[in-house]
Predict the 3D structure of the following.
Amino acid sequence: MSMLDGYGMDTITMAGTLEAKLAAMKGAGFSQVMLMARDLVTHPGGVQAAVAAVQASGMRPTGFQVLRDFEGLSGHLHSYKLDIAKSMLQMCAATGSKVLLACSSTSRHATQDLDAIAADLKKLAMLAVPLGIQIAYEALSWGRTVNEFTTSWDVVCRADCPNLGIGIDSFHIFAAKTSLDAIEELDPSKIFLVQLSDFMWQETPTFEERMTTARTFRVFPGEGVHTEQLADLVLRLDRIGYRGDYSFEVFNDDYQQLPLDTVAERARKSATWLHQDVLHKAAPLPEWTRRRA
Amino acid sequence: MTLNKVDREAVPDMPNRLGIAGIEFIEYATSRPQALGQVLENMGFRPVARHRSREVTLYRQGSMNLVVNASPDDARVSGTVDGQPAISAVAFRVQDALKAHTRCLDLGAWNVDSHAQAMELHIPAIHGPGGSRFYFVDRWQEFSIYDIDFKPIPTVDPNPPALAGMSYFGVVQYIGAARSADWQTYYEHMFDFSSIPDEERFGILPKGKLMKSPCGSFLWQLVEPEPWMDADDSPECLQRIGFGVPDVGLAVATLKARGVEFVESTRLHPEDRGALTRATLGSVAFELVHQ
């Protein structure tokens, strides 16, 4: 048991090869990693070699990302996205990830009917059952129809499917200024993933600003201007009984040009802050105290 | 006056949107067809026909068809571990195979590509647990599908009677930890199976969750690893077949006389409700259930 066991980094935060990223995370004390499909397919040895690298690192996959713009389409667009979804599910299963992240659609071609959206997500969840995968449906703050976690939760409830739950991303909650009171309405067993990050602006009123910030200038929890809200979010999740993983979804152009160990160290500090100062969880006792006499 | 619980929760008609009407056949994949054939013959099955183009044999007794697939170019055969046979498919009798297949794909099933050769039947299928398949067969009343793909074995009775009145009772599926709800929803959604209350159990192995086919003619049992089996991350699979028998004692005696061994321990032994055969070839066990 390590203090950092419930926290993980995301491969998108760092530059370099998959192996180097895994080594840096492990070196900072992390034992899990959120994998991006691109890490697998751009591996010089191909997907198989990437999967082998993840296995060799001994890191547990927090989940696998990301399926975009899946729901609400019809006709040939639906068939096309279904094929993409199947390939993503197969890669997800190959890595041993138990969670596939699906982000809410931004497409103007998609229906805004929540029941139709729920039916598509149920289909995705059914595809995932034989592979042993759970679908975490996340509201992007620039999603066309679903852009707050309250709506993604509504859709998940409508679909009523055990392996379909929601993914929470603090960035999108703060960017859309969604009230945290609605956290109380969530069933903690249906939160399949919590991704944490902060950013440096107080206001991101337009979808364009949210997108640019989300993709280039997120920071680790404790480093941004929403520290208090982020602590509040994590405490509320803890209070309703969420005991799953916290993954740091930090897209940041600066971190992409820093040494990997430096970035991983920032992540470790962030996790330590969350664990000790926010959640007030005890640090595990030193190893010698647990040794049997 | 108060209504009792049964009245309150009565469901008038169970939907059966695929028109499921029983199990047409169950298939084993194995690289040791002779050894498995011997086990099946001990259980009362007789080889009745061979496939025209592949190393596949049809066994039969009474109403039960059982296919042994030893085709070396089938990944499900080459994928078997340590020569242990695996249940690789269950074929359901349905109203309309194309409609059933299309409906399942629309609901999120994985299609299985057909490898039918010239003049062979294309039986539509979807992927099931652990690399197994579910086939949909609709022409089981007008003629026998086996007449097309199989050649009868000469001099053999094509319809051997069932030993001790055995018939297909159900299939046991081993699933991952905390996966019951996933699979229950899957089977409800795809096949209109319905869950049976935990208090209602058959046979001598009451673990897990039990579901019933919409036609009511077979059961599906989902068994998770025990909580203490932390290390059990073995792949999900169709684990064994259950046979329904009118008289378990008689069936056990008949099978014992043919060399079939039963699990007999202090906690598990043949009794009126059911019996379990000792696993042979590492993985092949059958359950008898009083019906």
The radius of gyration of chain B is 19 Å. Residues 180-191 of chain B form the longest helix (12 residues). Chain B touches chain A through 20 residues (CB under 8 Å). The longest strand of chain B covers residues 237-245.
